[in-house]
């Protein structure tokens, strides 16, 4: 047998037919030479073909399918989660009738908290190292903020940071585009726009210094009740020489902010930092201290009592790098820049509010909060500002603002999607925002205009935005579905073509088809699996489950239509009324840690503030007197009640179900006085009472408020509260025998019977109101003031000053003006608006077509229910349609 034949016979079992043929025509040495090149070509071309196929076919197909799944997921998330949130985020005026926590407070100049701007200064030096000193600074800052609505903090930015940031803003001002500019009032010589925290080293430096200022951070945490507050605004406002006075304004609207609806809307704060030494002529920010408690238009009052932030310093300069932190409820304005030789006034502004805690905290953005925030800066928090370059740069800022991704070590702030739907659901955006702010952003990211939805504001912002988003998603979904069908059809055709080629070459066409089909199935299956897992993760996440269960953006209070006997027994039966600044308010709708400083909102109501000052002084004395018996404790109670009465105050308790304020009878007021004196006598008791109140409020308004557990837990907690504070000692037979009233009798308040007032038919009006003993009219008294000695020319106001003989008075009118030296004959006491008073309800503009009736219900916003003398009834009559006339009624003769 020849050598060639042996090579053929003993070829390896894996040798191909082609190899055998070659072997039969060559010797052994030639066989090795010829086989080796053949294997090298095959091993080289196969990876190249695989790479080309992956790049040209598999990857584009996978990207197309991934895009289709992405849009499908967006469409599913929008319809499943966001459309229900649009409905829940909406707060109509009808909804807000049941969500009051305070009342519609009508302020005059008497309500200004100070006329001395240095009262706003807080020494929050970053060099403070003592824990006790830092805690004292925070307490002082929170106290000042709650009292005045603003604080001034020196030296927040270094001189280098101020210089660099001002230089950058000047360059940015010169190159700003129209689409970036935000509107401001009296904006002819003013400029404002959003700033990216990472767009320049000067901005990064300033942001870092602000966020790493330890006292400032502690102050914000205490104010907002959040260890990592959400960043809501980074902007600069420039006022050039010639800029006029802005109109006085609050940054939030009184009909939808935390002033009256603390559990519905978040309170927010803006930090103003001047980037130059600002004098009075350069247009510093003017503030109106104390107006964060005011619900009426106080323009005239603030204009009469205007105070500029430069007045906080002795040299009358608002220094570069200092900061003014303003509650966004407080009234303020940018004043006129009247110095033609001075540089433009630039203010750097950052704003904060508590992070959204969906399912736990029902609050949302206030109405009217026009944050000048650059679109990709939404979604960040204080922690991000401490090192902006780490997590606020692109593309991560874009993913963050769209609520797609954040680093695991960071928290979600208010992302762009959430803030936008909260705003347009309540008609709080500008009508042109959709067309002139959103559409340019869509162009930037490359979304073709032929995929956009319809833009039409005919049916309001909410319908317009919802329609645009839904149509854009549907158009994109339909387009990608068509493209995917066509692409997969082409891919299938190519597979069939190569399978046919393989069959022609006597290879397995079925094998070729199977391999390619399995490859597509694998890649698409992975993508489908990832999409499914993402959607499942969203559904099972805290956010998703809260949305689906209805907890996210649920109403802050349960519907009052649901009555429960066990809760009815916890309510007093006093007549409803509108509170006055001198009243002592016993709230029932605050008491939550997530409210931050607003948990103490009522402590700074004028009547409460004066009352608690007395309680704090008398608390230890009252506790020691308890050992001596009820006579001594009763005298302390009498003294405190008399002081409140002398200031024309009343004790009012809030109905936790309706939000109405009800007048307490003497025994109910005495029990309140007792509890306060005991709690303030010892810090531990004060903390225990506050903790119990928080738990009661959580059972009333929290996640489990509809359960039997919540209803009966309130009863047990109130029993515990009474045990902690003890029973009030009373001068009665039982107390003399050493048997105080039972706990049940203290908790179960018997109904107070209110006799219905008899209807009096109006015959005529007397020309002048009946005289009132003038010693009852003093500073703080609400009065009618006659300015022109005419029977109809009466104006409501508050007495600011009286001479020593009570002959002449200075009256702060509700329209903001102050009238001096009003004679006593032109002063009449203004009665409280409460159930049972006589009023005129009107059906025409200008208080015309008015008819007499009796008030049967008073709401916190001053709306009343009137039963007219002719038998007609109106449930909600606004203040513009009724009046308490400054004259006496006379029965018909």
TrEMBL record:
Keywords: Membrane, Transmembrane, Transmembrane helix. It holds the Pfam family PhyH. The chain crosses the membrane at residues 485-504, 516-535. It comes from the Eukaryota. InterPro entries: Fungal_Metabolite_Diox (IPR051961), Phytyl_CoA_dOase-like (IPR008775). Gene3D superfamilies: q2cbj1_9rhob like domain (2.60.120.620). This is Uncharacterized protein.
